[in-house]
Amino acid sequence: MQIFIDSADAKQIEIWLAQGVVDGATTNPSIMFKDGVTNMEEGARELATLLGDRPLSVEVTSNDHLTMLEQARTFATWARNIVIKIPIVNEFGDSCLGVIHKLNHEGIGVNATAILSFNQAILAAKAGATYVSIFAGRVADEGNDPAIVIRNVRNWLDQWESPARIIVGSIRTVMDIQSAALAGAHIITIPPQFLPKMVDHRYSRETVRQFVRDAEKTLKEMSKAKVQVAAPGAG
Fold first, then answer.
1. Which of 85, 107, 172, 224 is deepest in the core (most CB within 10 A)?
2. Rounded CA gap, 18 and 198, in Å?
């Protein structure tokens, strides 16, 4: 399983890249603005460079299919590791599968986003999406179990040997991350505020505190023993 960071904060991305746990990043215009990006192209280029060969998802900003295609082709020129986020439908419910299909045939990676159902996921995969982004938090808001959706989609992708990979987003708690991982998500895109919570545990701290105290005491005893052993020979 891979971890993407759901952020446009270069400092946060750099911190977690240095710890070896980030395999890519996902953004949208709202995330970029929240994280201080005021020029979308400059921000995307900076993040893409920081990530190296790891993928960076950048989202289109229109309901119009032709505009989506134009934006996607432009965004893809900014860096070789940019993947284009295309919604499964626009806000009017019009299918965006044709956009996904065309971009795939042009060799542009697509992250099919705003997916809330099994049916949407398999159609996006059939259309040629590189990634299908299941929004776990929003699935739960609808009264459904995101783990079941994730598991069913993963089983279908494996059964039919589809190259599409599941990204689970809309993470709201650390437990969402655990549930998605156990359900078979290929990738979970995690807001950076949850990563410290994943790594920390108060009992781990207490255990390390005990280790350090025991080690200090043991080193002192070792030092005393060494002096006692050396004393007869010194005389």
1. 85
2. 16
* Residue 222 and residue 112 in one domain: no
Q: How many CB atoms lie within 10 A of CB 132?
A: 28
Tell me how many domains the chain contains.
2
Return the structure tokens found at 8: 């446009």
State the catalytic residues.
85
- pLDDT category, 234, cuts 50, 70, 90? low
Mean pLDDT of 180-197: 98
Q: pTM of the predicted model, to two decimals?
A: 0.92
Same domain, 64 and 128: yes
Burial 193-224 (b: 16+ CB within 10 A, else e): ebbeeeeeeeeeeeeeeeeeeeeeeeeeeeee
Residue 60 and residue 172 in one domain: yes
Residue 135 has pLDDT above 80, yes or no: yes
Please identify which residue in the block is written with the tokens 């065309």: 102
Closest by Cα among 84, 19, 73 to 48 = 84
Q: Are strands 56-59 and 24-26 parallel, antiparallel or unpaired?
A: parallel
Query: Which domain does 219 fall in, by range?
Result: 201-235
